[in-house]
Write a structure and sequence with these properties.
Residues 248-328 form the HRDC domain. With 429 residues, the chain is an alpha/beta fold. It has helices spanning 49-61, 106-111, 122-131, 142-149, 156-164, 184-195, 197-210, 214-226, 249-269, 273-276, 279-288, 293-297, 308-323, 345-348, 350-370, 374-377, 380-388, 396-405, 410-426, and strands spanning 5-7, 13-15, 33-35, 45-46, 63-72, 82-90, 93-97, 116-119, 138-141, 166-168. Strands 4-7-6-5-8-9 form a six-stranded mixed β-sheet, sandwiched between helices.
């Protein structure tokens, strides 16, 4: 045992040297200790229904919050499905579950209904957890808690080190978690990710309470838990890296056709689209509009490693785009609702641009006083929308109504309304 921990009567680990300091974001005293092994060792990976039923019963009988994490295979596999789920709860210990072998975890999710789930960067893991039937009704997000508390670094490793005084080994965060069997070092890393998550939650709760921000955090966590699944993105091909170089409609059509062809292939092969064809190659082909396979093969991204059949399928996509009538070509700008990009405001509406500048400065000053990032004080998009189309009568009631209408939580409405009213009225709104 290190001087940052001791053992309770029941044998569980109790953190004593890692409670948050008086100044949020500063480190615990003394050198951090490496956390090398889960306290009960690496649990076996659950791969069958009988073992899953045992784990479900154990976690249902546990007490207190449950730490939850998931590992995906981003950059290796198509989509964002979970390839490992890790949990830890007092009285149940830790569990590692293979959602490929056990794809339906709705029974476990139901057993934990009403229990507070502790996640780090919850919005990253909730979509893949939802796919396998795990949906929290209550949660505590340790990354978001760190932001609200004013910590300058909110990654899990930085938070555990800064708040609890332990160093987590992070060498396996970007590995291919679809690998089977999973190597023991990866499983150790995965188990350690939930080892101290509840301890971190408890320490952050105390710090938020000390700063008078705990109710704000609960409102944020409730909003995340209540949020519906995200709608599929419209025209996802427009997010191709390097799209700013593509300006002509015919070239945009090539990007779209290549992107959609690549996506179908990637989905069929269950690999990351970038492993099928890079974004850079898609943009290169769109700009060049190659006339044939020979011309395509000369472009970056379509070199000697690309087989003849593959070149023909990409060229066929280019040819389909080149054959489209003008009426079927995509428009240069994606149809968006709301205000234009801020960089265009000075030309389109100088008065609105002045309002936005004043509002941003006011929100920035408020965020500095609160010691938290501006985007957590209020969504920048919400500020833009109110500045572009302010209420007809700018007063506390109208601005508060507008903020709430854009999804601001009550604590944000209370704090941001006065500064926005002052900023807007100062610009004659």
């Amino acid at each position: 045992m290190t001087d940052a921990q001791d053992t309770a009567a029941d044998g569980s680990l109790r953190i004593t040297g890692g409670t948050p300091p008086d100044d949020a974001g500063s480190s615990v005293t003394g050198a951090p200790s490496p956390l090398l092994e889960p306290r009960e060792g690496i649990p076996p990976v659950i791969t069958d229904e009988a073992a899953l039923a045992e784990v479900t019963a154990a976690f249902a009988a546990g007490s207190g919050p449950v730490a939850v994490d998931a590992e995906r295979a981003s950059g290796y596999r198509y989509g964002q499905r979970a390839y490992l789920v890790q949990l830890r709860r007092e009285g149940a210990g830790s569990a590692l579950i293979d959602p490929v072998a056990c794809p339906d975890l709705s029974g476990l999710g139901e057993a934990l209904s009403g229990v507070e789930w502790v996640l780090h960067a919850a919005t990253q893991d909730l979509p893949c957890l939802r796919e396998i039937g795990m949906v929290p009704t209550r949660l505590f997000d340790t990354e978001l808690a760190g932001r609200l508390a004013g910590f300058p670094r909110v990654g899990l490793g930085a938070m555990v080190e800064g708040v609890l005084g332990y160093v987590l080994e992070k060498g396996h965060s970007a590995v291919d978690w679809s690998t089977r069997p999973l190597p023991e070092p990866w499983l150790r890393y995965a188990a350690l990710d939930v080892e101290l998550l509840v301890d971190l939650r408890d320490a952050l709760e105390k710090e938020l309470d000390r700063q008078g921000k705990l109710d704000w955090a609960h409102q944020e966590f409730d909003a995340i838990a209540a949020a519906p699944p995200a709608e599929p993105r419209k025209d996802p091909w427009r997010r191709t890296s390097g799209m700013h170089k593509v300006r002509r409609r015919r070239q945009l059509a090539v990007v779209r056709e290549l992107w959609e062809t690549r996506d179908r292939i990637a989905q069929r092969r269950d690999v990351s689209p970038g492993k099928v064809l890079s974004d850079a190659a898609v943009v290169e082909a769109a700009l060049a509009l190659p006339a044939n396979v020979h011309a395509l093969a000369a472009l970056n991204g379509f070199g000697h490693r690309t087989g003849r059949r593959q070149l023909e399928q990409w060229q066929a996509a280019v040819d389909r785009a080149k054959a489209l009538p003008e009426s079927a070509l995509p428009q240069p700008g994606q149809q968006v609702t709301g205000p234009p990009p801020p960089r265009a405001w000075a030309d389109k509406d100088p008065v609105a641009a002045a309002r936005l500048s004043a509002a941003r400065a006011a929100v920035s000053a408020l965020a500095e006083r609160l010691t938290m990032p501006q985007e957590n004080v209020i969504s920048p998009d919400t500020v833009r929308r109110i500045c572009w189309e302010p209420p007809q009568t700018v007063d506390a009631g109208s601005v508060a109504t507008a903020l709430a209408g854009y999804g601001a939580r009550p604590w944000q409405v209370e704090l941001v309304t006065p500064v926005l009213v002052d900023a807007l009225t100062a610009q004659g709104a």
